[in-house]
Amino acid sequence: MAQIAKGLEGVIVSETSLSHPDGENGRLMYSGYEIADLANHAIFEEVVYLLWVGHLPTRGELTEFNAQMASYRILPKAVAAVIQTMPNDVEPMDMLRTAASAFGAVQKITGKGTVEHAMALTAVFPTIMAAFDRQRRGLAPVAPRSDLSHAANYLYMLSGEAPSEQRTRALDTYLILTADHGFNASTFTARVIASTLSDMCSSIVGAIGALKGPLHGGAPALVLDMLREIGTPDNAEAWLNAALDRGDRLMGFGHRVYKTEDPRAKVLRSLAERTSEIDFFRLAIRVEDVALRLLHERKPDRRLYTNVEFYSSAVLHGVGLPDDLFTPTFAVSRVAGWTAHVLEQLKDNRLIRPAAEYVGPTNLTFVPIEKR
Ligand code: ACO
């Protein structure tokens, strides 16, 4: 029997110049730049430009890029109408998947993917999510402002008020940290679809579906649920032991690639300290300490550490986002990476089509339906 790489762990299916998660050393680079440097010094738009174009923009290039992004932020009327027809209790990720699909059809995102397609899709995600969130709160949508950054526009379109510098910077940092991450499940989904020469919007709609699962982008709201259930630092040990006794996975821990601390968790921890309420941060720190100790004791050969989702929940909560917008906000960021990967796939495309080992029955005799 051929060797099976279940979950494709360790299988190298392509080359990429976009991002390099180094699981052994706990490092992450985007096109050669250390993630902490980008998170501390760049804005999201610069990072998006880097992923799509291959170098950091000059001031002139960034100004032109910002103006183009601004023109794509406005929601087409037909997409606004699709959002309006959706019930208010629709899951936000289902809403995003539906609206993104409608957007691709209305904007005629067809044929070979281009940077313009990438820009249109990336620019409109915050507008979609903000319009939906306001609608379910009984509020009219707020149009984007061309003088605000991507992160500031998202917060502005959600609340109707220009956000503080601190909230904008916190969201901007989160968006930078989560924009790309090698061949994760949703990115790989996007590349598989691109490899059939389907359109870029189909890649992105498929990727949204992959991101939604709790083993991928669906974890941060579950982290918050866990922290709320634990309630106080003193309850952490008993709660986490009981969860592990039941065989539950602790949300926000473990990673397919990182066998040490996720470098994004490091940046997010210090951001969470500045953005979340002090009692909440103390609780998160205690839960992390106890969880790491228990995972180490119970699964000593597994090398389980804090992943990006653990402190994302504290940061996004601190920024003021409702829990069910955490995963869509991950998509607001990751769509930049998905689209960059589609562009990269198309530069040197070959249909992605792996094989499976057949283990079903063989040589059965066909029995006519009336005799079964
Ligand atoms: N809590 C408890 N045990 C865990 C955890 C966890 N968070 N993560 C892995 N393990 C254990 C598994 O039970 C398994 O142990 P066993 O062999 O004794 O049964 C072992 O570690 C290996 O687990 P796998 O599922 O094979 O590891 P994989 O690399 O496939 O999983 C994953 C990675 C899905 C992230 C996993 O660690 C997990 O489920 N974490 C919790 C969910 C989470 O935080 N998701 C967000 C990930 S980050 C992102 O996608 C952006």
Q: Beta-strand percentage?
A: under 5%
Cα(first) to Cα(last) distance is 33 Å
Bound molecules: acetyl coenzyme *A
Radius of gyration: 22 Å
Task: Tell me briefly what this model is.
By secondary structure, this protein is mainly alpha-helical. About 55% of the residues lie in helices and about 5% in strands.
Describe the structure.
Strand 1 and strand 2 form a beta hairpin. A three-stranded antiparallel beta sheet has the order 1-2-3. Helices cover 57% and strands 3% of the residues. The protein is built from 16 helices and three strands. The chain has 372 residues and is an all-alpha fold. The longest helix is centred in the middle third of the chain and has 22 residues. The site of acetyl coenzyme *A has 19 residues, from helix 15.
Question: What's the SSE blueprint?
Answer:
Layout: E1 19-22, E2 27-30, E3 33-34, H1 35-41, H2 44-53, H3 59-72, H4 77-85, H5 92-106, H6 115-136, H7 150-159, H8 165-177, H9 185-195, H10 200-211, H11 219-230, H12 236-245, H13 263-275, H14 278-298, H15 308-319, H16 326-347
Antiparallel strand pairs: 1-2, 2-3
Helix pairs in contact: 1-8, 3-6, 4-5, 4-6, 5-6, 5-10, 6-7, 6-16, 7-8, 8-13, 8-15, 9-10, 9-16, 10-16, 11-15, 12-14, 13-15
Bound molecules: acetyl coenzyme *A (ACO).
Acetyl coenzyme *A is lined by residues 7, 215-217, 219, 249-256, 299, 302, 304, 307-309.
Main attributes of the structure:
3% strand; globular; mainly alpha; 372 residues; 3 strands; single chain; 57% helix; binds acetyl coenzyme *A; 16 helices
